[in-house]
Every structure is written in C-alpha cells, then in structure tokens.
Amino acid sequence: MINVKSKSELEKMRKAGIITGNALHYGGQSIKVGMSTYELDKIIHDYIVKNGAKPTFLGYGGFPASACISINNEVIHGIPSKKKIIRDGDVVSIDVGAYIDGFTGDSAYTFPVGKVAEETLELLKVTNESLYKGIEQAVVGNRIGDVSHAVEEYVTSYGYGIVREYTGHGVGRKLHESPEVPNFGKAGHGPRLVAGMTFAIEPMINAVGDGVKVLPDGWTVLTKSGSPSAHFEHTVAVTPDGPVLLTKPTII
Ligand code: MG
Ligand code: MG
User: Fold this and answer.
1) Cα(19) to centroid of ligand 1, in Å?
2) pLDDT at position 206, please?
3) What pLDDT, on a 0 to 100 scale, did the predictor assign at position 123?
4) Ligand nearest 68 Cα, by number?
5) What's the gap in Å between 88 CA and the centre of ligand 1?
6) Ligand 1 centroid vs 158 CA: distance in angstroms?
7) Separation of 85 CA from ligand 2 center, angstroms?
8) Quick one: which ligand is closest to 232's CA?
9) Mean pLDDT across the stretch 85-102?
10) Ligand 2 centroid from CA 169, angstroms
C-alpha cells in the first residue's frame, strides 16, 4: 500500500527533510583529510540531535551509526569506523535521515575530497544530474517507471553501471515504504503517481559495471569491479504544483 500524505503531513515531512538535508551538508562541509568516518558520523549525529530530531538510521535493522558513510568503491551502507580515514582524492558518500514529529527524511550526497580524478568527478556530476532527471518525472499522472526510466536513460548514455540490487523507495513515517523506485525501468509502467506521494529517488551508479558485493560485515556494499561509485538521493513529494524536494537543505 502506498501512503499518501496530507498537506499537514507534508509540512512535517519538510521539517524532517530540512534537518536531514542540513545534517547531510553540514557533514559534507565538515569533512577533513585525516578524519575518520567515525568522527564524521559523530558530527552528523550531534547536528541532528541538536536540532531536536533523532538519527533515523541509528539502530535501523541493527545499523550501528547515524549515517552511512561509503568511500570510493563502497557504494552504500558503509559503517563509520575509527579505522577508516578519509584521504585526499577520496569521494565520500554520506547517506542520512532525521526523524521528528513522526516522519523521516532520507538524503545522500557524494562529496569529493581534495584532488579527485577528473573521471570520478564526472561520475559524481552525471549521477547527481540523473537524480534530477528522475525528479523531473515525479509529477501527478506519471508512473514510477517514468522516474526509473529517466534515470536509466541518462546514466547509460555515459556508459556507467546502474546498481540493480538496491532501489529508491517510499518514505514517510517509516524510512522504507512502498513503492520501490528502481533506477532502471520502463516508461509508462508501475504505480501511478498521485499528489501526496513521497519517495526517495537515489541513483547508485558505478563507474564500471553494475555488479556489487556485500562485505562480511553484512552492510557495506562494494562495486565488483573495484571502480568508484556515486550516490545522490532526495526525498521528493508529488504535488499538484510539481515535484517538491523535501530534503533540500537551507544552509547552502
Ligand atoms: Mg538514504
Ligand atoms: Mg533511501
């Protein structure tokens, strides 16, 4: 069942989304070479709590931290660790959610650190652009397949690999709700979009190949090829006035 949100529920989701988006970008601005991903997670955690919200990911399915932090060939679900040190030339994906007044946001961004290889910067740019290609399709009367297809078409035109095992998803009172929002699919197929639907669109794109594997820690997803990967995500509301970015930050 797809939960359709009322106007007042969307306002609450925007409140959760602002804290989510701001925590994400505050985290991004706080990245320093030599910092551990544990320290970065702590900064993000404290930001969320200071703003009166709860880190949605902390304890979700047993996840031990407030943000997923995935570096270079790690695609998603990286576990923050004192042993993982951020280095010059890395790309650092932060994925985070803040829960307040009964609702959560979900947003991710891949930050380049220092001098990053040109081709990796291009991967980041195209992945972020593909997110907006999907968002453009989040309009009343379209279908989920229109969102999926727009992301797929854009990304494949650059020859990158689309991760298939993980998808975007409905989001609201729970972090993961119906429907699934894959990053590939057929235009004109899937659930019809109506005003009040809210979902996370989140392309996870590998520089080389679409294959992924999970580390023995049970969480960290890596590219099979060892190539870098990028992840950009917004929580979006379908409204009569078009798509609204619920996780758009207000601090940048
Ligand atoms: Mg996320
Ligand atoms: Mg998500």
Assistant:
1) 14
2) 98
3) 98
4) 1
5) 25
6) 24
7) 25
8) 1
9) 98
10) 6
Q: What is the pLDDT of residues 219-239, one digit of tens each?
A: 999 999 999 999 999 999 999
Region 27-43: mean pLDDT is 98
In the block, residue with structure tokens 């989510």: 20
Q: How far is the CA of 195 from the centre of ligand 1 (A)?
A: 22
What is the CA(176)–ligand 1 centre distance, in A?
A: 10
The residue-averaged pLDDT of 180-188 equals 98
Q: Which ligand is nearest to the CA of 201?
A: 2
Mean pLDDT for 68-88 is 98
Taking the CA of 69 as reference, the closest ligand is 1
SS (H, E, C) the chain: CCCCCCHHHHHHHHHHHHHHHHHHHHHHHHCCCCCEHHHHHHHHHHHHHHCCCEECCCCHHHCCCCEEEEECCEEECCCCCCCCECCCCCEEEEEECEEECCEECCEEEEEECCCCCHHHHHHHHHHHHHHHHHHHCCCCCCEHHHHHHHHHHHHHCCCCEECCCCCEEECCCCCCEEEEECCCCCCCCCCECCCCCEEEECCEEECCCCCEEECCCCCCEEECCCCCEEECEEEEEEECCEEEECCCCCCC
Per-residue pLDDT at 252: 82
Task: Please give the average per-residue pLDDT across 41-46, as a whole number.
Answer: 98
The model carries a pTM of 0.98
